[in-house]
Amino acid sequence: MEKKTINIIKKHLRRAAIAHPAKAEAVRRARRKFRIGAYKNGRDKFKTKFECAQCKCLMEREAIEVDHIKEVGQFDGSWTEYINRLFCSVDNLQVLCRVCHAKKTKKFNEAIHGGKKYL
Ligand SMILES: [Zn+2]
């Protein structure tokens, strides 16, 4: 199979993995709810934030990403293996802030590709 074709399939599989239920579960586990006051009627007012597993900062939902603790890595010839790594269990997923995720991804890419981005 051509490298170009493999990259197209990988891109679409990664997009499909957004709907992986384990991903939503990882986000749920990182959710932190705070009481930030009360409404006029006396009911508690809450704010929800998400905790980065690395730096422990609390972020809005838009600022966090779900990371594969053990990276999905490269396609090694087996789509089944690749898909299993991509659609892994929640135990291999963690929520990271964008900064921590970018750092981890950069480090991983440098280790396996000498800094070149992989798909
Ligand atoms: Zn972080």
What is the N-to-C order of secondary-structure elements (H for helix, E for strand)? Answer: HHEEEEHEH
Oligomer: single chain
What is the approximate shape? elongated
Helix content: 40-55%
Q: Features of this protein?
A:
single chain, about 120 residues, alpha+beta, two-stranded antiparallel ribbon, elongated, binds zinc ion
Q: Can you describe this structure?
A:
By secondary structure, this protein is of the alpha+beta class. It has a domain at 3-30 and 65-113. It contains four helices and five strands; from the N terminus they run ααββββαβα. It has helices at 3-16, 21-30, 79-86, 98-113; strands at residues 31-38, 44-51, 58-59, 64-68, 93-97. It has a three-stranded antiparallel beta sheet with strand order 1-2-3. The chain has a two-stranded antiparallel sheet with strand order 4-5. It starts with a helix and ends in a 6-residue tail after the last helix. Bound molecules: zinc ion. Zinc ion binds next to strand 5 and helix 4. Zinc ion (ZN) binds at residues 52, 54-55, 57, 96-97, 99-100.
Brief overview:
It is built from 4 helices and 5 strands; from the N terminus they run ααββββαβα. The protein has 119 residues and is of the alpha+beta class. The chain has a domain at 3-30 and 65-113.
Topology:
Layout: H1 3-16, H2 21-30, E1 31-38, E2 44-51, E3 58-59, E4 64-68, H3 79-86, E5 93-97, H4 98-113
Antiparallel strand pairs: 1-2, 2-3, 4-5
The structure holds zinc ion.
Zinc ion binds next to β5 and α4.
